[in-house]
């Protein structure tokens, strides 16, 4: 464990820099720059210093639920810093590249459902349904959210026209399930995901002959044409406004896994829930973020017709050892860029405890992180 650094102060250079340095930053958002809607005290000061020194940075968050442009506008206002979407990677941003599903029927789960649907449609997904759409179409599908029907009816849409109308309730075929953000109605979302994963061929209202028939080998689970299940954020906990960490999308996934293993026998039956989990600390997300950072740095260089130079180091500043620090420590850049993890004490991580994954440096807040990193580079 490294002791927190002494308070350092960032000095802007007397003459404005004419080159873009060969190091950069990736900032986690919740617990580093904001706590829910409140900016943290020295966030603005840290980022405006970096911009005055032409030191590139991006935002890398497991948060989501709105389109990148909307989140960038919100964050820019909150931090009083000019930013654009080229600097912003959130949990579901990589979903935008999944062209193979754009002309299929996908189910988007989580967040303010209709907002996430609009994000998916802006990414180019043509046919998007939500658990709320299904509940309003078939209220009996989940008896315990009836009191929420007026809420759901205010934004849900009719289901796509029956594709193979075996009967109205078995016409909807789901080709992929994407959990975009923290689910608000865990009961409904768990029920609908379970129905689709145990269906025949992703057709809602059916029960797969393999999965439903105990006489058949249980290896049939998720091997009867059921759709893939993508999670965008593994966070079990995150730092919201409340003084103790809150359950995140990882909490929902663990609850779903519990229902899945109760239904299928789970691990002891050799039936683990097949899923793809993205977001920090997973490699896919860091690869995606590094590409964005290199492109953004290239934009900055163009403004200074500076020589490209190699991005030698990225300081990954985060509050969660399980996502920011583990990800920063384990990511191996194909460009040989060294990712240096820096843990702050303004979010999930509690000062004085031993973090589950040891960062390169532990500091007080984001300003200390920037001061320490800049001092390493001087
Ligand atoms: O839902 C947001 C939460 O999981 C954490 O977000 O910004 O700390 O990666 P962030
Ligand atoms: Mg965080």
Automatic annotation (TrEMBL):
GO biological process: glycerophospholipid biosynthetic process
GO cellular component: a single term: mitochondrion
Top-rank lineage group of the source organism: Eukaryota
Xref: InterPro entries: CDP-alcohol_PTase-I, HAD-like_sf, HAD-SF_hydro_IIA, HAD-SF_hydro_IIA_CECR5, HAD_sf
Pfam families according to UniProt: Hydrolase_6, Hydrolase_like
Name this polypeptide is given: Cat eye syndrome critical region protein 5
